Amino acid sequence: QEHGLDFQRLLDASAYKERFRQDMIRWGEEKRQTDPGFFCRAAVEGAVQPVWVVSDTRRLSDVEWFRDIYGDVVQTVRVVATEETRKRRNWVFVAGVDDAESECGLDQGVTFDWVITNDGDELALGEQLETLLQSLHRRL
């Protein structure tokens, strides 16, 4: 919004997004340096549901913010796929982007409550998600 970019086009894996990706990362880092909770507060603003999912947290400070604000009700979920699977899905490593904190800031220092493997086996993925959902329902 600040820079007049097309929000919808930034949501996909298009060349449009890639053209602005490093600038978006830099802008996000500047925001976080002045206010580590900036994006977390934006994610929960107006949320009134008893359960909600915040997807795509990127940094340890994000996880810490949610844990500090919401305590033990927070459940962290990491979705993983092998590098081979990611490449089959047309992922190509870009130095300076894919090794930046915005992409790998949670690779260390976080103990996730759940780790879901998404390597293309729909049955296995469904079973994992069902187990997660059942656990969340029991916590209600």
Give the topology, please.
Layout: H1 7-10, H2 15-34, H3 38-44, H4 60-70, E1 77-80, H5 83-88, H6 101-104, E2 114-117, H7 122-139
Parallel strand pairs: 1-2
- In the predicted model, the low-confidence regions spanning at least 5 consecutive residues are none
The number of domains: 1
Q: Summarize the helix and strand pattern as letters.
A: HHHHEHHEH
CATH architecture call:
3-Layer(aba) Sandwich
- Beta-strand fraction estimate: 5-15%
Structural class: mainly alpha
Through-space gap between termini: 37 Å
Number of helical stretches of at least 4 residues: 7
Indicate the overall shape.
Answer: globular
Helical content, roughly? Answer: 40-55%
Write out the CATH superfamily name: P-loop containing nucleotide triphosphate hydrolases
CATH fold-type name: Rossmann fold
Question: How would you explain this protein's 3D organization?
Answer:
- This protein has 140 residues and is mainly alpha-helical.
- It has a single domain (35-139), classed as Rossmann fold (3-Layer(aba) Sandwich).
- It has a two-stranded parallel ribbon.
- The protein contains seven helices and two strands.
- It has helices spanning 7-10, 15-34, 38-44, 60-70, 83-88, 101-104, 122-139, and strands spanning 77-80, 114-117.
- It is globular.
- The model has no long low-confidence stretch (mean pLDDT 88).
